[in-house]
Amino acid sequence: MNYIVIDQGTSSTKAFLFNSKGIPIHQNSIKHELFKPKPFHIESDPIQIVRAVKILLEEMINKSGDVIIHKVGMAVQRSTFLFWGKNTIKPLTRAISWQDTRAQNIVENIENYRKEIWEITGAPLSPHFGGPKFLFITQNNKFLRSQIDKGNVFFGPLSAFIIHSITGIASIDNSIACRTLLYDINKGKWSNFLLDLFQVPKKCLPRLVPIQYKYGNILKTKIPLCTVIGDQQAALIGHQGGLAQHSLSANFGTSGSILFNTGTKPQIISGLISSILYSEKNKTIFMVEGTINACNSIFYHLEKTLRISHNKMQWNKRANATNTNGIFIPGFNGLAAPYWKTGFRDIYIDLDDDPNQIIRAAMESIVFLANDIIKCLGNANIKLTKKITVSGGGARTSLLQFLADVTEKEINHYLVKDQTATGVYILLNINDSNGDNAHVFDKKFFPKKQYNIVKKKENWLKAIKKFNLNLSSF
Questions:
Q1: Which of 119, 204, 361, 424 could form a disulfide with 73 if both were Cys (CB 3.0 to 4.6 A apart)?
Q2: Distances in Å between the alpha carbon of 362 and those of 218, 289, 297, 322, 371?
């Protein structure tokens, strides 16, 4: 038996054909465009993305040949939302990216509800998430609002639109529902209070289901879609022991996350997001997460800012060969955990005009944010292991060594590159036999005592305080 996994991300859609031993026997990817029509407006074309998903699914089916495809699973970027027709399954808006912060005025107008929202949802009040995006779009589109009132429209994450497009049935899994600011993580259902606050009719939302669920058959075949999960959740599960309580890992891709498995009860921690890591009909496992908006995306941003071609960026090589005492705070996408500040101008402190110093400081900013997230976990009396498992395309040597130095932890990097896809495969195969999910580390990084690390951490926190970017809290 074979398994198909779709990994739908910020800039591309990947597909993998796994055999029953968890070995990818074929894979491919299709990129899609990101549109930036205005400052802090970031969108993609949902039709382009669904077309890519369908093309890749058909390719995997053809490559499987006479071998039966047992199940299909998907991992999808989480905080990208859109509106589409219930009957037509046609988009009524572009997909508003997780990076998009156009709804900041909505957030400012309901700031008094921040504590209550965090306690209900486990997530901070932020324009990155679904509720503020819904209210902003509908306040500025009267026709769309009228269609919603008539019951003709679905609003949901990109995952729900893809599910509807390939199975004919709209569903939203509860790991991604955690990014709507409408989901009560304590009760496991939509919050009537938050539906009213963001003026979202319940009839506008797709059906709410667990991660492991019979979503329907794909593309009018007999192949079932059985797993849909947030991409970062899948990455944690893809790490060795990710479903075990107290596992700690990091994933560095276009964005990044520090992820911690809290077990069978949700835990609300100021500055961090509480989410569902895994769910089936009668079982739920929770996690806390600190997101980092700018990982690989920071270097794409600097390619334009510093006028460096993509082929010449080679940020890891530059960072390994450069030292700097300067600080770079990436504001172009805003700061996520634990500060939750919307977009602002990038901050440069004590950096020369040398592009290599800026690139080194940008790499270091990713690590400083990761360390701030880990400190939030420690401040919540969570006992952390002395090791962090790491994966993702941005997990390069310069970043991993600096992460070890700053956190004073052993960093273990997985040989398997596509950890997100591996996590989905593990879930597809979780009740089947023959699965061999053992992984090996290809690199380990140990803390080096460098005289300037303490000073650099102090300078980072001074800069955060100076520019009023302090920890967002209840």
A1: 424
A2: 42, 22, 11, 12, 15
